[in-house]
Amino acid sequence: MLTILFDGIAYGMLLFILAVGLSVTMGLMNFINLAHGAFAMVGGYITVLLMQRLGLPFLLCLPAAFLGAALIGALLERTLYRPLYHRPHLDQVLFSIGLVFMAIASVDYFIGSTQQILQLPDWLKGRTELGSGAWQLGMGHYRLFIIAVCLALTVVLQFILSRTRFGSRLRASVDDQRVAAGLGINVNQVFLSTFAVGSGLAGLGGALGAEVLGLDPNFPLKFMVYFLIVVAVGGTSSISGPLLAALLLGIADVAGKYYIPKLGAFIVYTLMIVILVWRPQGLFVRQGGK
Amino acid sequence: MKRRQFSTAAVAAAAAAIAAPAALAQDNVFKIGLILPMTGQQATTGRQIEAAARLYMAQHGDTVAGKKVQLIVKDDTSLPDVTRRIAQELVVNDKVNVLAGFGITPSALAVAPIATQSKTPMVVMAAATSSITLASPYVVRTSFTLPQASVALADWAPKNGIKTVVTLVSDYGPGLDAEKFFKDRLLFNGGQVPETLRVPMRSPDFAPFLQKVRDIKPDALFVFVPSGAGAAVMKQFLERGMDKAGIKLIGTGDVTDDDQLNDMGDGALGVVTSHHYSAFHPSAANKKFVAEFSKANKGLRPNFMAAGGYDGMRVIYEAAKASKGQGGDALLAGMKGQIFESPRGPMFIDAQTRDVVHNIYLRKVEKKDGQLWNVEFDVIKDVKDPGKAR
Question: FRET label pair with A276: which of B209, B215, B286, B296, CA 20 to 30 Å apart?
Fold first, then answer.
């Protein structure tokens, strides 16, 4: 049973890394970016290709995935996304879903549509087991690694958003762009870097997730629903909301599939409906925020 | 790339059609409409079959019964409604003599009514649910059926110390076939199936299902997943340390797909599967097939999909010779009852069921010359589809 809990937490953490960027762009910048999964896919492919073609070690590929996705994110923000910030949400949705399809088609064309297989280094392949019987806890080392990376990221992000000058600038820009600009904050730059970091995090999530979730060109579509659920349930105004939502979803999904395999796929959606009926704004809402 | 090749071919064909008098062109062309998933999750299937079909044409010439063979390849992206629309266009507009391909069962079933109405034979080269050949009297199959492979494995397992088996299948037609026939036969042979698990086709993570299997502690886990998804199951199976817990992995050959086997790593060693085709099959016909296939496709290894496509082309060619290039019922009659030596070994198209009869091999993954192969160690001869025996 503890093993199920552990797997659920690892899965949830992975969902959190993948979705936290989306919660930043959607919640803080008020932009609906369905193409978020495409950045995750970019990160995944960067990792897989670097490892397969150039033989780089896995740990080196992770920052590369982050940087690559962030770079592409920054580029697209500057060229494509910025003009759409003030357009209606429907335009944003149409634009970003178009981007998703283009990403799928280009990956399909250049790399091929097969499932990519990642070979983890040996030290991540093992498994540690504690206890026995119903309370046995089996931990895959890779899943432990995911949890560790994710916890570290959460702490760093929370710190940046609430304690640094950049964090307060970002929050100011979001609350009122005109006043923030009037106070000398370069709003465009703040948004650009936020978007890039959000995309980079997605890329990192994609790189970490390639092993667990599989990686093929349909990745952005397959997981779009999961990202959106995390953001919708968790609320978009903080880091802790999506984190708890992702954990809840991960555990519910894994436990559901374990205990009631026949209903497995439905549990997540049922949970989402129940939570949204109960708290339509998401689990955690910042008072007075937009 | 393939689309580009295809479009140049199409342009060339169009130019030829304009140059020649239209009526004459119609008479002298034998058209094969090949509908395959060239993009999306099942794309490896499409790639393998198209390559195999082109190889067959390269080896055997592109004229048959005095007619020029024209291969029209269309991508259905594994969506049955698209398959149906494409099939309709091919039959009505292009007036194809035969439909072929069909990557997944729902696609094949969607087209069956069109084949019946237009009396166009359709050669199923990939989809493997038993019931497909019942959907239309014009369906002929050159791939295999899941019951064939799973029953063979259920016969082998109890004789080799595997008494309790948990099944894990993808939740769609062929998976349900595999589960049902494996379970029934294993129970008949005195084995036990404590749990049957079905995973959604797009399941992102097999972890909870595998954990469940681990806690039940059967002698073996029987797996069916569509071609291309086997690697993920294999990796998570190993990651969970299930081999160390004494659980064996067995399955139909889809799990150790030749196309992906090498990427799965040494963890796949020793996995026992049952299937009709292995690229390692030790026959002269297969060695020639594998060598020429990888030569024509940058070292790609043919898998069982390629074998189905290659044999499908053979069936179409020979039937066209027998019918003197006529389509419809004459062509269908030419397909029934063909007996020949395929890369997979001897095979036979049963005239009654129009389904394939062939040997099912038990294979174990072994390393030869630094590569992983499915090495055959036992054979069950001339297996008819058990799904039709009722």
Answer: B209
Decide if B212 and A261 are in contact by the 8 Å CB cutoff.
Answer: yes
For residue A168, give both structure tokens: 């307060």
Tokens of B137: 């009297």
Angle, to 10 degrees, between the axis of helix A219-234 and the axis of helix A264-278?
Answer: 30
Distances (CA, A) of B270 to B150, B152, B285, B291: 18, 18, 26, 25
- ipTM passes above 0.90: no
Q: What is the DSSP letter of A83?
A: G
Which is nearest to B73 in space by CA: B112, B39, B105, B113? Answer: B39
Q: How many CB atoms lie within 10 A of CB B45?
A: 33
User: Measured between CB atoms, which of A113, A127, A253 is closest to B40?
Assistant: A113
Query: What does each C-alpha distance from B376 to B150, B270, B279, B281, B310 come to in angstroms?
Result: 16, 12, 10, 7, 21
Residue with tokens 């090749």: B5
Rg over alpha carbons for chain A, rounded to the nearest Å, is: 19
* Chain length of chain A: 290
Cross-strand partners of B364: B272, B375
What is chain B's pLDDT, residue by residue, as a tens digit (390 residues)? 455 555 555 555 555 444 444 444 456 889 999 999 887 777 888 889 999 999 999 999 888 888 889 999 999 888 889 999 999 999 999 999 999 999 888 899 999 999 999 999 999 998 888 889 899 999 999 999 888 888 888 888 888 888 899 999 888 888 888 898 999 999 998 888 888 888 876 655 788 888 888 888 899 999 988 766 777 788 788 878 888 888 888 988 888 888 888 877 777 888 889 999 999 888 888 999 999 998 888 888 898 999 999 999 999 999 998 888 888 889 999 998 889 899 999 998 988 889 999 999 999 999 888 888 999 888 888 888 887 765
- How far A96 CA lies from chain B's nearest CA (Å)? 20
Q: Which domains does chain B have, with CATH numbers?
A: 2-144+282-354 (3.40.50.2300), 146-275+360-388 (3.40.50.2300)
Closest Cα in chain B, distance from residue A193 (Å): 31
Binary contact (B208, A140; C-beta < 8 A): no
| Residues A208, A209, A211, A216, CA torsion sign | negative
Q: In chain B, what residues touch A112 (CB-CB under 8 Å)?
A: 43
Neighbours of A170 (CB within 10 A): 23
Residue of chain B with shortest Cα separation from A15: B204
Task: With beta carbons less than 8 A apart as the criterion, state whether A234 and A282 touch.
Answer: yes
Tell me the nearest-neighbour CA distance from B327 into chain A, angstroms. 35
The alpha helices in B274-381, defined as continuous H runs, are: 284-296, 304-322, 328-335
